[in-house]
Amino acid sequence: MADPKGFLTTPRQDWPRRPVEERVRDWDEVYVPGALLPIISKQADRCMDCGIPFCHEACPLGNLIPEWNDLVSREDWRAAAERLHATNNFPEFTGRLCPAPCEAGCVLAINQPAVTIKNVECAIADRAWEEGFAQPAPPDRLSGRTVAVIGSGPTGLAAAQQLTRAGHTVAVYERDDRIGGLMRYGIPAFKMEKRHLERRIEQMTAEGTKFRTSTAVGRDVDPAELRTRYDTVVIATGATAWRELPVPGRELAGIHQAMEYLPLANRVCEGDLKTSPLSAAGKHVVIVGGGDTGADCLGTAVREGAASVTQLDIYPQPGTERDEEREPWPTYPKVYRVSPAHEEARDLRTAQLADADARLFAASTLRFSGDEDGHVRWLHLVEVDEQRRPVPGTERALPADLVLLALGFSGPDRSDGLIDQLGLAMAPNGTIARDQDFATNVPGVFAAGDAARGQSLIVWAIAEGRAVAAAVDRHLTGGFTRLPAPIGPYDRPMRV
């Protein structure tokens, strides 16, 4: 540790955000450009270089956090970038999109604000690109073995990069017209500008990875043909089968899934559309679902100029401090957090009747009602207790011209026919079944990421990609691999 007293003398300071009034007028990232580097070395000084660094256990990637914190505090950016990339293919993605379970596991967080691990990670990644430390790393020689990766989200990309660097010839198949999966069309640009994604795609292309866009395996390509053409196939299609809300009035026009709404807004930013067909401009918007996807819808609707935006969360409003009995350190606690989108909604007062910022907590949707043309106009809700039982006398209605359902995902989408045509066995929870080596019941076919694990965080997705790459490499080489496997298929986050 560069400064043994850093955690005592330096308070936590996060990457400052741009003023709300400024950032809601564009789709750029919410943080002040260039404001992170001047503060980050001192923030890295706060790391205590613990004897047992629980931040390692909290992150499935096994990031060497105390090591690169120390290197950043000494401003050895090249070495810091090397240590960071040793465990994480895409730290500029996780540094922007991950909710940072590593910070919840920081030993300093027992009685102080945690080290700004996520900000340090992002600073290293950005500096690596600026200084030219993130050069393509093509293999010295090719193995002569071929791999098809289906899906180009963080799992598919991580697996593809690892296997390409190991010398195998890898092709990534993506059903959309651009690479990136939900990072491309599900994550708004104000959370992560797509230039970060494009940069990695260029790097991977230079390393030798092939990309096949607008190709849905199961519809445009026969999965059996893929099995004969490649030595192995990795399924990393994600968990994109969205959950429904089966209440009266669901059939009304104007009620859409979040993943119908968000991709259109992203396509406007990509220049594909002038305006979104589902734009929230001038509309009263209600978002059903209190998670990150709901917050993404919130920030998007605010930027589109919604008349009002309210977000419903069925859970009660959490406290601002960790509940030590239910969620003791170092588990990831459910506490009241204010995302940039919630900060914007709070300051702009988008929901006058909300409990906090734009959110109504402990609120359950009863039904929708509409006008004579069959378009939704009202969402009827009721307050619920901790067991989600309706509280008598609390029913009320919210004006709603656009309702967005952000209720999470139940498993992989089967509409393309990939799963059924291959005859893949499924787990009871609706995900693809696999063994301890990430292998499915179909010889030569492996499954990783949310398609097999279920809906999870981006760090778990990248860890799955790295781990399945090691399993595939062992399969192709007859039992030996130099590739790291940070997790097993049955590993789970720390819980009580």
Automatic annotation (TrEMBL):
Keywords: Amino-acid biosynthesis, Glutamate biosynthesis, Oxidoreductase. It comes from the Bacteria. PROSITE patterns: 4FE4S_FER_2. Residues 38-69 form the 4Fe-4S ferredoxin-type domain. The keyword Ion transport does not apply. SUPFAM superfamilies: alpha-helical ferredoxin, Nucleotide-binding domain. Pathway: Amino-acid biosynthesis. NCBIfam families: GOGAT_sm_gam. This is Glutamate synthase subunit beta.
